Amino acid sequence: MSTLDLAGRALAAESARYEAMGWMRGTSGNLSVTLSRDPLRLAVTASGLDKGALTATDVVEVDADGQAVPGQAKAPSAEAGLHARIAGVAGAGAVVHVHAMAPVLAAEFWPDGVELRDMEMLKGFGRRAHDDLVTVPVVPNSQDMRVLGDAFEAGFRADTPALIVARHGIYVWGDDLAHARQRLECLEWLLRFRTRLYRAFEGSPQ
Ligand SMILES: CSCCC(=O)C(=O)COP(=O)(O)O
Ligand SMILES: [Zn+2]
Known about the structure:
single chain, L-fuculose-1-phosphate Aldolase, 7-stranded mixed β-sheet, 5 helices, binds the ligand CSCCC(=O)C(=O)COP(=O)(O)O, binds zinc ion, amino-acid biosynthesis, metal-binding, lyase
């Protein structure tokens, strides 16, 4: 089995997991793993498919611009360009993108960035101490992955492996798919907590 086939199998299994969590409704969301760094090559989920029912062949190899390398049977995710940009800038081994509700809601409340502090779950997001102030960057949505990539890079901090795209979804990255998922699960919990608390106090700063 080729490296791309192995990546496809892992991406399909991981996608099914996210879909079961309700974070990849319809055909939303996409995942990637880095295959090589020089040149940069990613295995990314194919576009427009039910992410709960992917098979090992629903994967596409793309370059640093998110373009399919020659010989690919399927179209790569429409967001492959942003995956490639994140993998290149952050050095990520895996990038996951889901359409969970809490990050999008948080971006409505805090469009300049979502501040998180003094929460034990921050450790699961890769921070050293539970009292760190973490600002998760928010960028406006765009259909142009170069625009999104430039906005991501402008606000990139190596210690904050996440990006919320307003009115769209969230990207989280890590060394591999399991690492990215652990970070995403902890961050989604933190964002759910933050938005629920904010709403409970009817919009007062919390
Ligand atoms: C209803 S999903 C709209 C497109 C999107 O945001 C997404 O995450 C899925 O796009 P893909 O091309 O990866 O299927
Ligand atoms: Zn999306």
